[in-house]
Amino acid sequence: MSTLSLVIGISCLVLAAIHDARTGFIPDRLSIGACFVIVCLAGVGGTLPQTLLAAVGTAAPMLLLYALTRGRGLGFGDVKLAALIGAVLGLSLGYIALGLAFVVGAAICIIGLWLRRMHRGQEIAFAPYLAIGSLIALFARGVQLV
Questions:
Q1: What is the distance between the alpha carbons of residues 63 and 45, in angstroms, rounded to a whole number?
Q2: Domain residue extents for the chain
Q3: DSSP string, 62-126
Q4: Per-residue pLDDT band at 84 (split at 50, 70, 90)
Q5: Whole-number Å distance between alpha carbons of 24 and 93
Q6: Using CA atoms in the order 134, 8, 53, 93, what is the torsion angle rounded to 10 degrees?
Q7: CB neighbours of 38 closer than 8 A, spacing ≥ 6?
Q8: Which residues fall within 8 angstroms of residue 41, CB to CB, at 6 or more apart?
Q9: 46-64, pLDDT tens digit by residue?
């Protein structure tokens, strides 16, 4: 992963998380736009096949979950954001980021239910957990930006 791709991807991921937390919606211009730029950079850098595989491979389990829940479990914006995560982090780190997002999201929801700040059936924005999971995975791996 190039430093430029990493900066663009993480910046857009954080912006999408903030927007989703405020509105419950992830703009396509963030997820799809950033993914397009990263794929173009991968084409120039000679890593296009790996980047495309990682984007599709990371989005696939989220797409399956979206299909199984008929869009009630998570939104399609989360699927597109997962593709961005894969394009930026690669397939294996992308899977780790998704797993961490579900663990962190579940922990926060359990605590929220226990403290009675949340209730069953309440909709939650998942993009913040995707961002948190991605950042934990990235920094646990020891990625240096310079």
A1: 28
A2: 3-141
A3: HHHHHHHTTTSSS-HHHHHHHHHHHHHH-HHHHHHHHHHHHHHHHHHHHHHHHTTSS-TT-----
A4: very high
A5: 26
A6: -20
A7: 5, 8, 9, 51, 84, 87, 88
A8: 2, 4, 5, 8
A9: 899 999 999 999 999 999 9
